[in-house]
Specification:
- This is NUMOD4 motif protein.
- GO terms for molecular function: hydrolase activity, acting on ester bonds.
- It holds the Pfam family HNH_3.
- The chain is an alpha+beta fold.
- The chain folds into two domains: 108 residues, Homing Intron 3 (I-Ppo) Encoded Endonuclease, Chain A; 47 residues, no CATH class.
- It is built from five helices and nine strands; from the N terminus they run βββββββαββαααα.
- The strands form three sheets. It has a four-stranded antiparallel β-sheet with strand order 1-2-3-4. A three-stranded antiparallel β-sheet has the order 5-6-7. It has a two-stranded antiparallel ribbon with strand order 8-9.
- A hairpin with a 5-residue loop joins β5 and β6.
- The longest helix is centred in the C-terminal third of the chain and has 13 residues.
- The termini are far apart.
Length: 185
């Protein structure tokens, strides 16, 4: 377990963020010129991320704590589109050891892998080459043994491996085998 360390937030120099995900105000007392530190109480946004409201003169801004920690202790984001990811998927766990920069697509795959977001399956996935009804028909043809796999693949302009994966249930498993289907082919 590492010790808590603090770094000043560059865009809000009256505040500091810790490697443990805490934020404090550092203001100088006008009486004895000594810092009077005050740890802020974060709020939780509608998506579950911890945030704090920081003030710099007339500028007031709500900032996500995980992003403040990453910028202070990891680095600036590699690009403007990079997102700060919670490695364990727990949005309130803002320790620097639990944070990393990712592209939006890497972050989405990570969320699907952890079960935080459902993967878009079948024809609702805009990268899909098939409709649910076509997969149902492929499964029906496979089940009836009417046509060999290479012929089914040629019929739908697919690779044979795709047909074998449909048959094995490793893809398109949400489309049932059966005698009736109300999806559109």
């Amino acid at each position: 377990m590492h010790e808590e360390t603090w770094r000043t937030i560059s865009s809000f120099p009256e505040y500091a963020v810790s490697n443990k995900g805490r934020v404090k105000r550092i203001k100088v007392s006008s009486v004895n010129n000594r810092p009077a530190e005050h740890v802020l109480r974060p709020s939780t946004d509608q998506c579950g991320y911890k945030q704090v409201c920081l003030v710099n003169g007339c500028t007031r801004k709500s900032l996500k704590i995980h992003r403040l920690v990453a910028e202070a202790f990891i680095s600036a984001p590699p690009s403007p589109t990079h997102q700060c990811n919670h490695i364990d998927g727990i949005k309130s766990h803002n320790d620097v050891e639990n944070l990393e920069w990712m592209t939006p697509s890497e972050n989405m795959r990570h969320a699907v892998r952890l079960g935080l977001k459902p993967g878009v399956k079948g024809q609702r996935n805009n990268l899909s080459k098939l409709k649910d009804g076509e997969v149902w028909l492929i499964k029906k043809l496979l089940n009836s043994c009417m046509l060999p796999v290479p012929q089914i693949a040629a019929m739908f302009m697919l690779n044979k491996r795709t047909i074998f994966r449909i048959k094995a249930g490793s893809i398109w498993s949400h489309v049932p085998y059966g005698e009736s289907h109300n999806g559109n082919a």
